[in-house]
Design brief:
- 2 copies of one chain form a homodimer.
- With about 260 residues, the first copy, chain A, is an alpha/beta fold.
- The first copy, chain A, has 2 domains: about 70 residues, Hypothetical PUA domain-like, domain 1 (Ribosomal Protein L25, Chain P, Beta Barrel), CATH 2.40.240.20; about 160 residues, SPOUT methyltransferase, trefoil knot domain (Alpha/beta knot, 3-Layer(aba) Sandwich).
- Chain A contains 7 helices and 13 strands.
- In chain A, strands 6, 7, 8, 9, 10, 11, 12 and 13 form an 8-stranded parallel beta sheet that branches. In chain A, strands 1-3-4-5-2 form a 5-stranded mixed beta sheet.
- In chain A, helix 2 runs parallel beside helix 7.
- Chain A starts with 8 loop residues before the first strand and ends in a 16-residue tail after the last helix.
- Chains A and B meet through helix 5 and helix 7 of A and helix 5 and helix 7 of B.
Chain lengths: ~260, ~260
């Protein structure tokens, strides 16, 4: 018994088990009932980052809340590759970088405050909402963890020593990404991309004297910070991540 | 005799030789005189895609035209890697893809009309202006050629047979990009990225039956078309392009 996969996917915080009833929050209820005009009996897909992706049917539509009934498993849970993205938020583009990082499978987003940064504060809740929306749309099974904004020394002080940190060195230091990727053992990784103005001389020194940090270059052209984040993340995912897997958008077999 | 590199770089169509006088068009004249407030005696950098990058000084500022005098060579000419990007224009994001492709060093942009495309016409002049602006800003020495909008059968019919065309197969066919990149000989390359809605079944069949076309996948998550273009272009440039070169933003030695 198969049926076409629903075209709406929602991330929910609740545990997902067959027969479970979920009452959606105001935002998702509004989206489902008013924007997408779903009615009792309609099907959607839900996921929570732990229990896989489930089919759920709309049970009851009230003015400010929609209740779903979870019916059957569509896809088993899968973790995204263990790849963190630390990045200096970019004026007007922080959400865009978060959205692309979710599509490209980053498992954690770590906004970093650097010397030449223009953005001095971030709205973590808004960033989380963006990450959830991007995960819903790109068929991802989990949502990356979004860490609190910290400065570069704090990032390095809290960084696990066994996790290699690839750092985009716009000053031309470092080896090529190709060489780095071809020579490294597998293991947990992170990527650090600086702000539009680049890192300061002191930051470059601090990074280069940190054992787990590996500087790399991205060629002769000056990449915008958002381009650099997407480009480097893509290379890392292509070489060390899960790009050998097939897309999950084909109609699913029933697991129930 | 060295001096700091000017912070304004302009693409000009004229030949560049020491002593040459250039009269800028209305747009660039307005930008230089009114927006950036440059006056007679100020220095800027100019390039034309053939003769290298030159220092030029503002000679005369009139209401609608600025005249420059070309003084000395700052950098020798360099060609971008021979990598074409064929892409289905994306509603509201065509210029963004062009900008990123210029930063990532694509040597030609080929807008392609596909079955599921939403965008049915493009403004080639506007796209060229965007590409020029992106080249000026990213320290690139040339501007990619922008071809006329054609449909997929015409693209394939005019494609040189010795140029491998990597095609992003969102349906999950094809091998991984990593394997493709590791196994291919060097040579001229192209990349094809489809529209938001993906290629049609007929287009997939047409592509797969074309000898110079190599399908590849980009993992389990569904990438937006603009993300896919940037991500795949970055991987190709990282593996087959010029990312082993250093950025050209350091102060230059005098060649005069």
């Amino acid at each position: 018994m198969t049926q076409p996969k629903p075209d709406i996917r929602l991330y929910v915080p609740q545990p997902l088990v067959a027969g479970e009833r979920l009452t959606l929050g105001q935002g998702q209820s509004h989206y489902l009932a008013q924007v997408m005009r779903r009615k009792a009996g309609d099907s959607i897909a839900v996921f929570n980052g732990h229990d896989g992706e489930w089919l759920a049917s709309v049970e009851y539509v009230a003015k400010k809340s929609v209740t779903l009934e979870v019916s059957r498993l569509l896809r088993l849970q899968k973790r995204s590759p263990d790849l963190w993205l630390a990045f200096a938020p970019i004026k007007g583009k922080t959400e865009l970088v978060a959205e692309k990082a979710v599509e490209l499978g980053a498992s954690a987003l770590l906004p970093v405050f650097t010397r030449h940064a223009v953005v001095k504060s971030i709205n973590q809740e808004k960033l989380e909402a963006h990450a959830i929306e991007a995960a819903e749309q790109c068929e991802r099974m989990d949502v990356p963890r979004i860490e609190a904004f910290k400065d570069l020394p704090a990032l390095l002080a809290h960084w696990p020593e066994d996790r290699i940190l690839f750092y985009g060195d716009e000053s031309g230091g470092g080896t090529t990404l190709r060489l780095l990727l071809s020579s490294l053992p597998h293991g947990p990784f992170g990527l650090l991309i600086g702000p539009e103005g680049g890192f300061s001389a002191e930051e470059h020194r601090m990074l280069k004297s940190t054992p787990f940090v590996k500087p790399f270059g991205m060629g002769p052209r000056i990449l915008r910070a958002d381009t650099a984040a997407v480009a480097a993340l893509a290379c890392l995912q292509c070489w060390l991540g899960d790009w050998e897997e097939k897309p999950a958008c084909a109609p699913m077999e029933s697991h129930a």
